[in-house]
Write a structure and sequence with these properties.
- Strands 1-6-5-2-4 form a five-stranded parallel β-sheet. Strands 3-7-8 form a three-stranded antiparallel β-sheet.
- The radius of gyration is 17 Å and the shape is globular.
- Helix 4 crosses helix 5 (95-105).
- It is α/β, with parallel strands linked by helices and 152 residues long.
- The protein has six helices and eight strands; from the N terminus they run αβαβαββαβαβαββ.
- The two termini are 31 Å apart.
Length: 152
């Protein structure tokens, strides 16, 4: 018996609902990087990590707003007419999910950047530190080393 089909795939209607919902709640680092590079104005990227983590490196152009401060600071600092994209360290961390939940509680349109800062850096996108902006070498397990988008 197949390990894949031991639990049957969902029917088409359920699959459509599930995958459409995932895209409504999530975005990836490549799409965020493309929007930032193009200067898209209706998306704002939020780094929900600690000050120490922010200082170590963050998405160039992101806003630092730790999760515990979202409820008290967001209304004054984050426009209501944007889509908020939250991120934290990476796939092993649910900090971006918690941050997205806080923004949702406040009525913001919000998505989580899957892969987080880890995949941002691993795909070679600009990382800002107190020393300036750098790029890490592209990890061949996460993106084409040519730097050309994967076109997925």
């Amino acid at each position: 018996m197949s390990a894949v089909t031991a639990t049957p795939a969902a029917d088409n209607a359920a699959a459509l609902a599930h995958f459409a919902a995932r895209l409504a709640f999530e975005t990836d680092v490549s799409d965020v990087a493309a929007d930032l590079a193009e200067g898209v104005k209706d998306v704002i990227v939020i780094d929900s990590r600690s000050q120490e983590s922010w200082n170590q490196g963050h998405v160039e152009g992101a806003v630092h707003l730790p999760t515990r401060e979202i409820a008290t600071r967001a209304a004054a600092e984050i426009p209501r007419d944007v889509t908020v994209v939250t991120y934290c360290w990476g796939p092993g961390c649910n900090g971006a999910t918690r941050a997205a939940l806080e923004f949702a509680k406040l009525g913001y349109r919000v998505k989580e950047m899957i892969g987080g800062f880890e995949y941002w850096a691993r795909e070679g996108f600009p990382v800002e530190t107190l020393s300036g902006v750098t790029r890490h070498p592209i990890d061949a397990l996460t993106a084409p080393v040519s730097g050309i988008a994967c076109a997925c």
